[in-house]
What we know:
alpha+beta
Amino acid sequence: MKISYMLNSVSITKSLAEWYIGAYALERLTDATIKGYKRNGRKKNKMWLEGTGFLTIILD
């Protein structure tokens, strides 16, 4: 499963996302997206992060 990250509609790498919001936070948000995909089949999770903007995690 390929995981892509977007911040405010701009595609970013995993390492940049980890630097920007923190490795632990990114891991937790990615895990939540994968669990949500298994529950309801949604491959895209868009969330608001206070002070940084929208983070979108896309599963391919």
